[in-house]
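Fold in tokens:
===
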Amino acid sequence: MQLRAFESKWDGVRAIATTGTKPPALWSRNGNNFSASFPEIVDALSAVLDHRETVLDGEIVSLGPDGVPSFSRLQRRMHVLKPTAQLRNDALTTYYVFDVLDIDGTSTTDLPYLERREALANLSLEHPRIKVPPHWLNVDGPTMLEVARTHHLEGIVAKSITSTYQPGKRSPSWLKTPLRANTEGIICGFVPGSGNAAGGIGSLILGAHDDSGSLVYIGNVGTGFSSRQRRELREQLIDIERPTSPFAIAPPRAITREARWSEPLLVCDVEYREYTGGGLRHPAFKGMRIDKTADDVDLPGRH
């Protein structure tokens, strides 16, 4: 049995940081330099590492007023190349560093996890905009999940204490367990399926009632269906098809272009990671709700 260390899973944007250059740089997983979007982190890296060459791995996170990571707040900073001082202040970001790949030109990727964590600690990275979150040994997964739930975190990651760092790979030595929430959604139509989903639904178009009672769009769900469910749902929705959108405010054009609308009568259960106001993040269909009517369905977090 592998011994594992546990870390918190942060709801943010993964970033590789390189220092020893002028200035330091932040890189996305697909190799794009997005340093300009997060100047406060670049400045912090300059302050704590000065002329030292390192390659770090971590997550860029924006905390809400309650101290909980907020992806919706972070979204305000993404793709903004020159954030204003007000935007930086309103959606301040922090770099949570959980691994080190290189120090002073020497690769650390072949070192076991615990040795890399020790090397990371020895870099003394603590700064208001840079954090090295803790890891825990001799604790079980259910306990760590409950701690993450209590603190409203995204989940946990279990890492083998002997594991090496494997760039660009999904290693079985790192097991991620996200915490997810459930909500009901009113089925307001569907996008027809293609490829393996041809003849069925590609995704369901979901709605819920806002504070004023208006029916508003909360996102599409396209995963979690069997092939049979995709066909059966299409048949059910065609039976109650309507020519126009039932929403008070039209959904994004990318959705309406292919949409086939239905009367907002059927309710389904959806598992998701976060509701940002713009839509559900990482939703998955869990089943139909015959015990709920459309009138019972409010925006996520209101019920």
Notes: The CA atoms of residues 22 and 289 lie 57 Å apart. The longest strand covers residues 181-192. The mean pLDDT is 92. DSSP finds seven helices and 17 strands in the chain.
